[in-house]
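Step 1: inspect the first sequence and its C-alpha cells.
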Amino acid sequence: MQLSRNWIRQYVSLPEVTPKELALALTMATVEVEAIIDQAKELEGVVVGRVLDVVKHPQADRLWVCRVDIKREILQIICGGSNLSKGMLVAVATVGSRVHWHGKGESIALEKAKIRGVESNGMIAAANELGLQRLFPLASEHEILDMTGYKVRVGEPLAGALGFDDAIFVIDNKSMTHRPDLWGQYGLAREIAALYDKRLKPLKIPPLPKPIGETLPLEVVVSDPSLCPRYAVVVVDSLAPEPSPFWLRKELETLGLKSVNSVVDVTNYVMASIGQPLHAFDYDRVEGAKIVVAKAGKKVRFRALNVETYGVSEETLLVNDEKRPIALAGIIGGADSSINADTRRIVIEAANFNAASVRRTTMALGLRTDASSRFEKQLDPELVPQALAMAVDLLLRLHPSARVASNALDVVTSQSRQTTLEVNHDFLVRRLGFAIDPKIVIGLLKRLAFGVSHKRGHYTIIVPTFRSRDISIPEDIVEEVARLHRYDSIEPHMPVVSVPAPSKDARPRIERALKGLLTQGMGYDELYNYSFSDAYWSERLGLDDRSAVRVANALASEQQALRTTLLPGLLRRAADNLRWRDRLSLFEMGRVFLPDSGEYGVGGSIEKFLPRQPQLVAGLIVRQGASGEDARLFLQAKGHVEKIFSHFGIDLTFEDTDAHRFSEPACVARIHKSQAGSFGLMKKDVVSNVMPQVSIAWWEFDFAMLLKYADQSRRYVPLPKYPFIERDISMIVDAKVQWAMIERALQGVSPILKRIRLFDVFASDRIGKDKKSIAFRLEFARDDRTLEAKEVEDSIAKLSAVLEKAFHAVIR
C-alpha cells in the first residue's frame, strides 16, 4: 500500500512536518511505514527547456546539434530524437543528473561529453530515459518527450512542472490488515487528521444523476445474502474508452497503478481514493441484461481478464449473466464481458462481498488482486453508494457526451449495524496505567469520528460503521485512546509489584547439573526423540507393545504405541549415526507412558486418570569393532551410573538381575533397597542385524529417584592441609565376589582411610578356575597432621585381615 502526501493534502491541511516526521507519527500510532520515496529526487537536475536551434551534426547523419534555453543559460546538446523541432519545449537532463541510458538498466550520472568531436552539455531526454514511460504511454521509444502542450515554464524543474514533487509513503500491508478503513487515501487522511487534530474535509461526491433519455434494462439478483450484503450497479451510455488525461495517469502512477484507459482508470482511481473496488462490464456483452450473484453450484471453467482460465469449485461466489459467469466475485472480472475499444455502454458495479468467501477463493486459485486484498478485510457496505456515485461523476466529466442510461440498482441484503460500547472510566484508567481527564478522552474519540457521551464516570460510545470491523470490545477503546494520546507521551514509571520468594523447586537445577555432567564431564551427546514407541527396536528388545498406551490417531504404523522405555529410540539413533562415527555416547531425558493410572485426572476428574508418566534418563555407550572390550564397556556404564548418583551425594548398591532378557550381564542399582535404575551389556544377537560388530553398554534410571535423594545442601569443604598417602592392594578372590561387597566391608575399618578406587579386574586360568584378581588403590590422610608410615601400615594390616576373613582373599 502506498500513501501520497499530495493526495492527502486535498483532504487535510498538514502541519509543518517533514515526511520523516509524518512517517514516524503514522508508525507509532497507526500503520508501519517501511520507506519514503522522494519523487522529486528521481528527477533532480532535470528542467524544462526550449529548443532554439536544430542543426545537423557535421560528423553524423542521425544526430543534431541543438541550442537549448533553460533560462539560466543556453546549452549546446547533441541529440538524436526523431521528433526534434525548433521551439519545442523539452525535458533537459543537465550535467550531474541521472538518466536511464536508452531507457534501460540502472540510472547513470550525466557528464560533459564530446560526441563525434562536438561538445554536448547534458541530454534532451525521452520519457523512458527519465523513468516516465508509463506516464507518457504514447511516446515512441526514440522520440523526445514533447512538453509543448503542457502548462510548463522554461527553466522550471520538471518534477514541479509535472507535479512529481510528492513524498510517497510505502506502508506494510500486514500492519493494517485489521483496518479496512485505511485501504484508501481518504481513510488514511482521516487517520492523519485525527493524529494532528486537524479538520478533515468531507468528500465532495455529487449524488448519482437520474437517467437521461431512453433507459436501458438491467436486472440484479443476489441469491446468497450472507455472501453479498450489498450490490449496486448503473449503466452509463455513449462513451468510448480512451487514454486518460494526464492528471489521472499521474495520480495512478504515483501509487504504482498502471493506466489502461479512461474507464478502467476511473475504477482504479476510486478504489485508491476511498478503498472500495469497482468493476466495469461491457453492457452489450452482459447476456439478457441480467446480473446474478450466486455460488457456482457446480465445477466450471472461468476465463479471467488476465487471460488465464481457472477451474472453480461449487462453493465459489460468481457474478453471472443469464448464460455464464462474468466475474469472480470480489477478485477479477471475466474476459468475455471486458471493456474494449468497441465498448460504448458500460455497467459500473460497486459491491460488498463476504471476506471469508473472497479469501477462500483467492487461496484456492492462488490469485490475489488489488480488489481481493481489500474485500478480504471486510469493507464497510456504506462505501458502495459513495464509490458508485464518485465513479459516475468522474466518467461524466471525462466523457462529456456520456449519460446515465439506467436507474441505479442498489440491492441491500444485510443492513449495517452500528456498534455501541459501554466503557467505565475507571476501567479505562486501569488499563492505560495513567490518569486521564474524561474531557481528553471524549476529545480523542471524537477526533476518530466516534460518537461519545459521558455521564458519572461512564462512556457510551457509538462506533462508526467504517470501524466496526476492528472495534468491538472495551479494550479496543483503550487502545484507541492510548495510541492517539501517543505512547511516547506516557510518562514511564517503574511498576509497583510484589516479588514473591522463588519456589524451591530443585528439579530445574538438578536437571541442568545432570545434563552438564553427562555432556561436559562424560562426553555424551543429548538426543530428543518422539514419545512414540519404536516398533522394530521394541520387538528386538522383547518388549510387549500390546500392553502399552495406544495412540488413537497414529500417523504411521510403527508409531501406534507410546514408549515405556527410552532404549528403543536411543538404539534407532545409534544405528543412524554409526554411518559417520564408530564411537558414540548418547543419552536422552524424557517421559515414558505406563498403562497404570497416574496422578493427573482427565478433565479435572477424580475418578479417571491419565497414564503414569515417569521421567527417565537413559544412555548408550556404543563401540564399533571393539572386540574384547565388552567387560570394559560394562564397567564403564556401571561407573557412569555410580558417578552420576555420587555427584548428588547418593550411595548406590548393585546386584545382578535377569529381568532384562536383552542384556547379559545386567545389574540393578538400588538406593536404600529401592530400585533406582539398571545397566548392562546388550546381547549381540539383539543388535547384530542392524549394527554388526558393535558392542553396546546401556543404562537407565528414574529421574524422580535422583531428585528424591539428591543432597541439595551446599557445603564448603576446604582443601586438605596435609598430603595423602596412597597404597595399592591386589588380591585374588572368588569370581562371585562383587566389588560393592568389598567396598562396603572396608568402610569404617580405619579412621584414616579416605578413599577407595578400583582400577583393575582380571580373570585367567593361571590364577585359578572361578577366581579373579582385583586391584584397588587406598588413600590415607589425617586432618590435623601429616601421617606417619607406621600408621598407614597398621591400617593396611587391619584392612587385609578383614578381606581375608570376609572373602578368603589371597593378598598378592
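Step 2: inspect the second sequence and its C-alpha cells, then contrast the two.
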Amino acid sequence: MPDSPELLDEERREALLKRLCDTANRVVYFPVRHHSPSCALLIRDWIETHRPAAVLIEGPSDYNPFLDELFLGHQLPIAIYSYFRTEKTHSGVYYPFCEYSPEWLALTAGKDAGSILRFIDLPWSASEGDQRQTHRYADAELRRGRYVTALCNRLQVEDFDDLWDRMIESHADLTTDDYLRRAHEYCLSTRCWEGSISDSDRHRESFMAENIRKTMKDTDGRILVVTGGFHSSALVARVEEFPAPEIGLQDPPQTKAGETEPKMIDHGVALTTYSYERLDGLHGYNAGMPSPGFYREVWQQRGGRAAQPFDHAPLLAKLVKALRQRKQTLSTADLIAVETTSQSLAAIRGRQHVWRNDLTDGVVSALIKDEVHYDGGSPFLDAVQEVLRGSQTGSLAKGVRLPPLVKAIQDDLAAYDLQPVRKGISIELDLLDPNNVEKSRLLHRLRALEIRGFRWTGGTDFLAREDLQRIWESWEIRWSPEFESSCIEAARYGTVLEHAVASKLVEHAGTGEHTVVSACEWLIQAARCGTKTLSNNLVEVTGALIAREGQFSEIGEALGHLLYLFCFDEAFGTTRLDQLARLIDEAFARALWLFESLGQTAPTDTGVIAAAENLSETFRRVSDVLDVTDEEYASVLNRIQADRGKSPSIRGAAAGMLWSIGGTTPEDILNTMRLFTSPDQLGDFLSGLFRLAREVAQRHPGLVRSIDERLLEFDGEGFQAALPSLRLAFTAFTPREKHYLLLTLFESLGLAKSEVPSLPSANTETAAEALGIEERIGELISNFGLEAVDGGI
C-alpha cells in the first residue's frame, strides 16, 4: 500500500479491517463492485453454503413491497427506475441488473435459500444527493482521489478499471477470504484518503445502518449485507458503534439552514428494460464494469464454479465475424499477429491469460497503423468495442406494474391507431383537419418526452414561417427496444400526458443557457403539443428572459414568434390566449425601449430591420393588448428618426413605421431623406424605409421621383458605390411591385410607357461598371486636352 495520509491510526484501522473481513460474525458485510462477475460468483457461493436468514442489499427500500416482480422471468438486463416530482424538480435514477450483477445473484440465491430479502437504501424520493446523478449503482468514490492515483502508479496500471482487474477480476481462483481482505482494504483506504464524505453518502449510510439494526432485532439467524464497498466500513462502524468518526459517521442535517423541504407532488418506483449499450462504462455509464459483453463471457465461462483461466478465443471469433460484417477481412497472418501480441501484452502485465485491455491493445498494435483515437474512427477498433460491449437488450415479463403515464400513453396510441410496429409506418397529417391535429399533438408530446420510435420527418416550418399555404407534417413510427423503457422513464414528469410534457418543457427551458428566442421556440413546441402544455411555469420562464434581454434583434425575433401564436395559429389553438397576450405586451415594451437605445449598428444589420418589422406588425395588429398609447409609440419613433447618433437604416425604419401609422407626412419623409443624399447613406436609409413602409412608399409618386433625382445627381463612381445598398433596399419589393414603381416614376415624369427607350440586355452591375468606366475615360480625355471641338484638330 502506498504511503498514506489516512485519518485512522494503524491500530484502529487494523481492528476495523479485521471486523470487516470476519465471516463468522452474525452480520457479514460483503463489499461489491457493481456488475462484477467475481463478486457475483463469490456471493452466490457464500449464500448457498451458509444460507443466511436475511440478505440485505443496497437498493431502493420503497421497492420492497414489489420484490416478487423481480422473479417473473424477465430477460436481463433490466433496472429498477425510481422517480419523483416536486414543486421545483423532476428526477429519476436507475438500479440496473444484468445476469452477473452481485445484487442480482444475492437476490436469486437468497430466494433459493429461503432468506428474507430486503433492499435497505434510502428511497430516491428522499435522497439529498446530487439530483444530476442518473445511476444509483455508481462507484465514482472508488474511481477518484489520491489513493487510487497512488496505487495505480505503484502497480503500473492505467486507471481504476485496470486496477480492479489486476486485484480481483483476472484471478479465477480467488477465495472469499482473499477477496474480502483485498476489497475491504482498498475501499477503506480510499475512504480514509478522501477525508470528506458527502452529505448524500452519510444520509444513505445512516438509513442503511438503521435497516440493518432493525433486521437484527427481527431475525435470529445470520445476516448478509451486500453494498458497494465504499459504504461497508461506515455501516460496520455505525451499527456496532466502532470508534471511527473520521470516516464520516456524523448524520447530516435533514435540510440545510434557511431551506424548506420542497413539496412532493408524485413519486414511484417500477421496473424498466435496459441494455448492455447503456450499461457500458465506455459510453458514459458511471457505475460498474466497462465492456459488459467481455465480463458476460467471463461470467459464462466461470459459471460452472471451476477455477480455470479465462479463454479469450470465443471473443476473438466474434471479432472476426464483426469485422467481416464491416467488410474488413482478417488474414491468417493478421490473426496470428493479434494473438501473439495479446499474449505478449498479458505476460508483460503479469497475467496468466489474455484480458480485456490485452485484446484491445493487441488489435490496435497488430492491425492499426494510423493514429489511434479510442473514441472510435477505426473499423477495427469499433468492431473490438462492439464485441466487448455486447448487444444484449432486456425485456420485461408480463404482469409487471406500469406507472400511470405509461398506461395513458398506451391508451392514447391505441385510440388513434398509432401503435409502433417493427416494420414501421409513415404518415402524413393535414393540420387543418381536427382529427389530424389531435394525432399531431399526441406525436409531439411523445417526441417532447423523448419516447423512442416517433420521428418527425418533415412538414411546415412554424419557426421560419416562409410558406404557410399548406399546414402539414409527416412522421415515421417504428417500434424500438427502448420504447417501453423510455415511457417508464418519462413517468417522473407526471401521471397525465399533457402535464408531463409541460413539466418536461419547463425543465428544459429552465436549464442551460437559454435565450428569449429559444424560450419562444419552446412555446411554439409546447403549442404543437396542445395549449394545455403552455403551463404558467413555462410562460414565467419566458417572461423572465424577456425582462433580461438586452439585444433588440433577439427580442424582435421573439416578438415575431409570439405574434404568430397569438394571431395566426390556425392549427394548434393558441389564438388570443391570455397567457400570450401578457408576454406580447412585455416583449413589445422591452423591444420598443431597446429600439430607442440602439446606436450606430452595421448598415446591413438585417436582424435589426427584421426586429423593427415585428415591432411595427405587433402594434398594427394587437395594439388592444399593449400598454402603450398611439401617442407614446409615435413619440418614440419621432425621437429615433431625429437622432443623429443612429444609423441611416434605423432612422429610415423609424420613418417608415411612422409613415405606416399616419404619424408623419410624405413631405416630412422627403425632407428627412434629403439628410441622406450621399452614396454611402441613401441606400441604407431606403432599406429601413422600404421594409417598414412598403405599401405606402410604392404608391407615392413624389418619393419615387425624388429618389430618381438623387440618383441622377450621382456621378459614375458615386452610383457604383451606392449600388449594393440600393439593391438591398429594393429587395423589399416583389417583382410586380418594382414594375409598379417604374410605372409610377414614368407617370410622374410625364412619360408614356411607349416612350421609354429600350436598353440592351445587361445586368445592373455591368451597367454601373460601364458607366463608371465612361466617367473615368471622360476625365482622362479632359486631362490631356483631347476633347472633341468643332472642325476637328
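Step 3: confirm your contrast with the notes below.
Residues 659 and 666 are 8 Å apart (CA to CA). The beta strands are 27-32, 54-60, 78-86, 90-97, 116-121, 223-228, 264-273, 425-430, 454-459, 472-477.
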